[in-house]
Write a structure and sequence with these properties.
- The protein has about 140 residues and is α+β, with helices and mostly antiparallel strands.
- The chain is about 40% helix and about 20% strand.
- The protein has one domain: VSR Endonuclease (Endonuclease, Chain A, 3-Layer(aba) Sandwich).
- It has a 4-stranded mixed β-sheet, with helices on both faces.
- Helix 3 links the parallel strand 3 and strand 4.
- About 20% of the residues are buried.
Length: about 140
């Protein structure tokens, strides 16, 4: 399966590396549940440069970015920046799921369920051949 090449600003690589060392409690909680293909077998990266942004988590196969928004996202200027950022990412064919920091800390199970529901609704799995049985006469 060929992946879309996603452009990014190379100057963001060093910042992304630094952000990986300053992860929030909500990001830590979610990362523990989605790393190493734990979430339905999909591979996620954290602090991934995409375009002019760094997203908290990204799955290339799903073209899905997951953002954990802390208190710094609650003022009007930040909300406008987030809207612009999401629009730019969607322009690259990337869907964005957003969760509040406190959701990831206090209700991680619901966050995981919402991500799984999004995956199931947008990327339905084909019937496994091990479960497929031919009808008589086939």
């Amino acid at each position: 399966m060929r992946h879309t090449i996603i452009p990014y600003n190379p100057k963001l690589k060093e910042l992304a590396r630094a952000l990986r060392n300053h992860i929030t409690p909500g990001e830590i909680a979610l990362w523990k549940k989605i790393r190493d293909k734990q979430l339905l077998g999909y591979d996620f990266d954290r602090q991934k440069p995409i375009g002019e942004y760094i997203v908290d988590f990204f799955c290339h196969e799903l073209m899905l970015a997951i953002e954990i928004d802390g208190i710094s996202h609650e003022n009007q200027e930040a909300l406008e920046r987030d809207i612009r950022r999401q629009s730019d990412l969607e322009g690259l064919g990337i869907q964005v799921l957003r969760f509040k920091e406190q959701e990831a800390v206090n209700n991680l199970r619901l966050v995981i369920e919402q991500i799984e529901n999004w995956i199931h609704s947008t990327h339905p799995q084909p019937l496994s051949l091990t479960h497929w049985r031919p009808h008589r006469g086939e």
